[in-house]
Amino acid sequence: MIVLGDKEHYKGIGQIKYEGKDSDNPLAFRYYNPEQIVAGKTMREHFKFAISYWHSFGGNGSDLFGQGTHHFAWNEAREPIRAAKIRADAAFEFISKMGFDYFCFHDFDLVQEGENLGQSEVRLATMTSYLNEKKAGSEIKVLWGTANCFSNARYMNGAATNPDFKIVARAAAQVKLAIDATIALGGENYAFWGGREGYMSLLNTDMKRELDHMGQFLIQARDYARAQGFKGNFLLEPKPMEPLKHQYDFDCATTIGFLRQYGLEKDFKINIEVNHATLAQHTFQHELEVAAQSGMLGSIDANRGDYQNGWDTAQFPNNIQEVTEAMLVFLKAGGLQGGGVNFDAKIRRNSTDMEDIFLAHIGGVDTFARALLTADKIITSSPYDSLRKQRYNSFDSGKGKEFEEGKLNFTDLYHIAKENDPIELQSGKQELFENIINRYI
């Protein structure tokens, strides 16, 4: 375990270990065995689990109707650098005790934003150096970094898509500094989330101009990072709305189309969040499949929403059926391309004990691990694959195969249709597929 500063924040909690599904220890993994081989990789390699710096160490449990309930040392310290260093100490202690390898961050998760760009730059550089000192005594790495270009009031009308050029330039400066910090910390990816890249009303919005600006902004960010020697993927995270009425990176399909339009598809992958998928009226597994089919399945923000609330509640994942279906897509696609599974989730406002953040992550980790094991058994031991292939066997030979190969024209299809009239219906066997999932969970 890494050496901490002069204080242990999570007292009484030791290393979280795998104890198997029959364990009664709430501070142990029941399904996540990091070195267990599943489908040719260890679980550790499959998932590359990461802690989200913002939710795990940045929130205080406040909401629109009440003050904060999470009274942690890093929330109580007033001087920004001191608070940031306490937060970093707690973060590295937590990540180490969880046995994770990675964390993700926004620039101003690491330290409070300054009163001006120059002060922010100095603060960020100070904390980058401090984090590198801590990394030197551990195996902890950065999965991805990003810039918070949505919280400050200057971004109320967007960052890259803002109608005021001065703000676009300020956003570029902020992203530059975040890229520099990510590179300095050895980050494996760099992410973008366009939290306010969209509109509240089309009445005052030139959509084409804003999209062109966003495309140019990402091109310039990519070129800058590559010039600094960054070799990793850039990640773009879709979300349909909230905080804006409509965001330009609505879902995976929209985002992939945008990346192709501006020639960014070779450098960018998709970072898929579960709750964002459901807000777009999709399923998590649908979004994974869309990204995978385009070779852009980059990384995952693991959480869930509340089906009674139409907004982003960012709860820890616990829906084993949902995640099992997602892991079927995950395994069939060969896993993630460069990214990992980041828990973009937060403990509830009334979860106020220091151990609660451990319990939440353990539950999320075990949900993904159990789902992976289940999906692997479904693929290797059930008729799942053969049943899916059987639905399309009319394309495996004869005229169906000729159609797939582009050898038939519309007139050919017309004559084939006349020969095959009437057509016998073929069952989709949906209930059988659903039963297979439940059988193996």
TrEMBL record:
Keywords: Carbohydrate metabolism, Cytoplasm, Isomerase, Magnesium, Metal-binding, Xylose metabolism. Mg(2+) 1 binds at E237, E273, D301, D344. It catalyses: alpha-D-xylose = alpha-D-xylulofuranose. Mg(2+) 2 binds at E273, H276, D312. SUPFAM superfamilies: Xylose isomerase-like. Belongs to the xylose isomerase family. Homotetramer. This is Xylose isomerase. It comes from Flavobacterium cupriresistens.
